């Protein structure tokens, strides 16, 4: 006698990341949706590091996935997909910021002095604390900090991406670290009370 197990009959089929990517490469629309849903949380997390407005992040994530699906046939499966996707999201975020640059409040730092040593306090806090503290930074400093410290871009690359001098990238990073240190020290002081 065969048992009719309704739970097993309606269990959604799961696919590996490689299979999702392969099916997207073959142009299967329903697998594009599955890939989008699979990486949505990750993509939003990357976008939130660059943009504060959730609607802007959603726009960037959607634009990024459109780029992914247009270029997925060129994706090299020997490379990690998440790294490829992250680069697309970061670049799309930077492009979004560049389009909206006129709305950003930027400091004039052409004459600023580069501070060569990073504050030690910032180096000793964990990633979760840093991500919370990033919200205290001006947009340009937050972007440079993310690009350099989290995503590993060089100051030359950051300068090209943001259309700023390399020295400005260094100054923004230094100022970001200093502000993070001050906010961290302030928070640590309030916990001690």
TrEMBL record:
GO molecular function: DNA binding; sigma factor activity
Biological processes per GO annotation: DNA-templated transcription initiation
Matching InterPro entries: RNA_pol_sigma-70-like, RNA_pol_sigma-70_dom, RNA_pol_sigma70_r2, RNA_pol_sigma70_r4_t2, RNA_pol_sigma_r2, RNA_pol_sigma_r3/r4-like, WH-like_DNA-bd_sf
All residue ranges annotated as the RNA polymerase sigma factor 70 region 4 type domain in the record: 129-180
Record's keyword annotation contains DNA-binding: yes
Domain RNA polymerase sigma-70 region: 35-100
Keywords, alphabetical: DNA-binding, Sigma factor, Transcription, Transcription regulation
Family: Belongs to the sigma-70 factor family. ECF subfamily.
Protein name listed in UniProt: RNA polymerase sigma-70 factor (ECF subfamily)
Native source species: Arcticibacter pallidicorallinus
Biological classification of the source: Bacteria, Pseudomonadati, Bacteroidota, Sphingobacteriia, Sphingobacteriales
